[in-house]
## 1
Amino acid sequence: MAEKSFKYVILGGGVSAGYAAREFSKQGVNPGELALISKEAVAPYERPALSKAYLFPEGTARLPGFHVCVGSGGERLLPEWYTEKGISLILNTEIVKADLASKTLTSAAGETFTYQTLVIATGSTVIQLSDFGVKGADAKNIFYLREIDDADKLVEAIKTKKSGKAVIVGGGYIGLELSAALRINNIDVTMVYPEPWCMPRLFTAEIAAFYEGYYANKGVNIIKGTVAVGFDKNDNGEVTDVQLKDGRVLEADIVVVGVGGRPLTTLFKGQVEEEKGGIKTDSFFKTSIPDVYAVGDVATFPLKLYNEIRRVEHVDHARKSAEQAVKAIFASEQGTPVEEYDYLPYFYSRAFDLSWQFYGDNVGETVLFGDSSPTSTTHKFGTYWIKDGKVVGAFLESGTPEENKALAKVAKVQPAVNSLDQLATEGIAFASKI
Ligand code: FDA
Ligand code: NAD
């Protein structure tokens, strides 16, 4: 099979890949120089839609509506956009071998692609229950959610199992967003997770108490402190029950599993330096190998603000790291300087009629403010994280655009705090003054 050669190759077709392609175009890539290779069948899209409007019974999102870069208010890159720009959009193509020494990628179908500069944007894959040896985890109607094909299968099951029962395994982002989406579809939902409260990676016990109460009021059952250890299936191979470690058995027509992600670095094992589970980069997303960059979920990069090396699995960083890497590629070719990546962590989620944002770092003491009762009519509340006498992180539910801007600013500026009581009393007004 003929070898295809490109000056630049983006490996991956997700959020980072799409934002990288746009930046290549802004920087003036010539027709024929750039290829984007993805195992997905569609052009890059805003992945967050898959666990939200893609699953709604009304106001449903479908492609081409949410191709990148609409999620950040940018231009929507339809497949035609790539053609117009002379960018080769190579879809349905899984790369199964990457040889960084000879700068060659090989696809499952045996095609080879060579490059001068590679941008690795392979993202994450889901951790599967079969990885922990859970019995019966191969039953039909047990779903994971990462790509649009996964979402399509789930949508189909929601239609066929109308008013059925679902068990959601995991209390993180997928767990909380999918429980809400299925409940909105009138499915009877039970969440199961091992921790004492949901989203323990970010939420304090007080923040989690609001969401757990709110979900309970929406009819979601929550079972904490245990895990799924097995599944039963019927003669058609469809899941019927979930066995829990504490001995309980839950009926289920649909199971959705969200027990975490794993960065897709396998292709590069032993060829590139890794750290904290990801591919180690500098502030320009350059890896330990010349002309190879890594962006998005797979990159472990210097987080300048905290003087630490971190990996971030969120969309805002996927977009910004991609733009930074492409700017750095052109700057290095032209011998011009580019500023170091100076990232302020930003995470958000939306479920039911709730919407929260978080900026900064969730370390140190916490102060809760506002009305965090699950039955409050405004459900406006938040939390500050205080370390070494300074605000380092800020969370707000149901903020206005101005308040969310203030939240970002307070986390970036890190103002000194004289009294925690003052923070609790002033609430978001404290951030708005900064
Ligand atoms: P991403 O996963 O987007 O893309 C990786 C791409 O590489 C995929 O197209 C994949 O097929 C391709 N690929 C991988 N290996 C390949 C190979 N060998 N050959 C060819 N192609 C290959 N974040 C947030 O901040 N807010 C939110 O609301 C959400 N919501 C959300 C919902 C759901 C359902 C998921 C799964 C994730 C989120 N996220 C999120 C996280 C966010 O979407 C995620 O951090 C970014 O998509 C990461 O972008 P990447 O480009 O790194 O990976
Ligand atoms: P997560 O890390 O947010 O949550 C994993 C959860 O799995 C844990 O909180 C825990 O409750 C649970 N868990 C772990 N082991 C378990 C077990 N054996 N049995 C039952 N539960 C177990 O991961 P996720 O929710 O699967 O999300 C996957 C990826 O998608 C992450 O990268 C996440 O950042 C991303 N994502 C982000 C958003 C967002 O930012 N709004 C939304 C959806 C997905």
## 2
Amino acid sequence: MTAVERHNYDVVVVGAGGAGLRAAIEARGQGLRTAVICKSLFGKAHTVMAEGGIAASMGNSNPHDNWQTHFRDTLRGGKFLNQWRMAELHAQEAPERVWELETWGALFDRTKDGRIAQRNFGGHEYARLAHVGDRTGLELIRTLQQRIVALQQEDFADAGDFEARLRVFQECTVTRVLKDGERVAGVFGYERESGRFFVIEAPAVVLATGGIGKSFKVTSNSWEYTGDGHALALLAGAPLINMEFVQFHPTGMVWPPSVKGILVTEGVRGDGGVLRNSDGKRFMFDYVPEVFKDKYATSEEEADGWYADPDTHRRPPELLPRDEVARAINSEVKAGRGSPHGGVFLDIASRLPAQEIQRRLPSMHHQFRELADVDITAEPMEVGPTCHYVMGGVDVDPDTAAAGGVPGLFAAGEVAGGMHGSNRLGGNSLSDLLVFGRRAGLHAARYAQALTASQRPAVADAQVDAAAAEALRPFSAEPAEGTDGAAPAAVGAAGGAAGGAAGGAAGGAAGGAGGAVAPPENPYTLHQELQQTMNDLVGIIRKEQEMEEALTRLADLRTRSRRAGVEGHRQFNPGWHLAIDLRNMLLVSECVARAALERTESRGGHTRDDHPQMDRRWRGVNLVCELASPPDQLAAQDPAAGQITLRRRDMPPIRADLLDLFEKDELRKYLTDEELGQ
Ligand code: FAD
């Protein structure tokens, strides 16, 4: 039996970004003992990088705004493939969640008369994003962290222990959700610093692990986004939906190469920035799609007038939803009208006074000056699409955030699917985290509360042993027979400190004289090849043959990843961490590729070169990804065979009173005649 540290809680939240922290606050608020686990330091989650703001129809900027308008915008942005009940709850509850943040100490930018200021973003009919300059995520995380500390202080006053009911396990990675029969029983993980294993037993687990961007080469996402929660859900038996929809944000940095992909906030365009090609032309007017024709300006004069008077002008086309803008930039570059480094120009310098740019966009000003030696108050930025967000995720119940088919498992935030349909609007993620983070924490708590002591699940030793063996495999990577040996490719431990509870010899034994074996694989090489494959073959514009090729390459990478080997010990060993993360990235990448191949239309964050039109027959269809064989047999399964099965599922019809919020003419663009008849 593997020796592991064991803890016992009522609710475990995996992830300490906006969704995870909001869930933990709620579960603790219900009086339950709650653990939060995160890969990085507490407070450094991905949410901290969010720039532009939180979408909520508070009506501070325009009194006409309300939840119905926000709901309409969200469905239009998602091309009507959104889980409509989630979109409804989100639009209704977002203002309350923002006001709640303020009562917990968040300091938003203000209007002249002292209300929370709201800014414009693509796809939102009114200025709707509550913000703190272009550092909104930082303020959101700071506030939630502060709230957690306040609750811990209450617990200290009550029980003499800060961690009596809420404990954060930072710099720890969860590698498995443990189960007792069909039900969740806890999680297995390791401390990143020491490599020590631990188990947290709990009847309810909330996944709040964020996205999958690190499977792509050019991305705005940080190192943590390796699709862990998506893979943990699959391995626990919960399905994923909408995995074909990956958002390529139109404006990432393109130069210099070391910073390619880093985000340039949509706030630049929201505050008046315009996109130009190498001829100096403001090209977005040429790319307004049919479904949006009546809502966007057709001349520069009309577009510019909208900033001062949105009620009598139509919106500038630079503020179309992200998928439209990203495709337009891609087309301009392809047509030879790009900027010197393969992007287009984003110009705010000629649109606002320098001082105003520095006030509204301080991070962007700093980012370009430090990283690209560009002064955005004086010259345009070069920008191009970057992999930013995954709309697909765990299939959840809209009201309770419970994951399908696995009692005790919940998911919220970017790891959950459905809310954003085929394309997320900017600002709708931060509000999603708060709305569904709260719901996930609440319902996880209720689920755990309903169990008597004898009904609580137990963690079997065999599961712990299997999880430990799986995590240790990179230290004894099996060389493959049949090829000439070469120098071992296993990577060493960073820091090289001795010790670590198990460690073991690396797979570097391969190679040597006349060996008919292939050396262990270097996890970094595998990761790079995976990123290149996804970027080139399942990227912003997709073709059938290329995606088939991607699936072949993914099968090869899976086979080789079984031999991913590392040297050294479990202490401070990033090569080992990556070898473990590869399992997750390969699983989610296969989901993306399979679903993208199956959907023979273009919609939102899924563009098919060979099926360029949106097809109304696909509107009501979710593609559901599940594990092809039982999770405990995954290791024994032939890696060259697919690990994911795909099925089509009809979405529930949109409720009639919600459909009534739209003009019939607009619905005709999305719904089939049969749906309209009903
Ligand atoms: P995260 O904040 O990423 O948190 C994930 C957590 O899970 C982390 O704590 C991580 O350590 C932990 N974790 C992951 N795997 C494991 C594991 N195996 N074990 C333990 N812990 C694990 N959205 C907006 O609405 N407005 C914006 O202005 C905006 N700007 C953005 C700017 C940038 C640069 C980027 C990249 C995104 C932006 N987004 C924005 C999107 C938004 O920030 C994210 O979608 C959102 O923060 C995701 O939050 P989350 O709570 O789901 O996950």
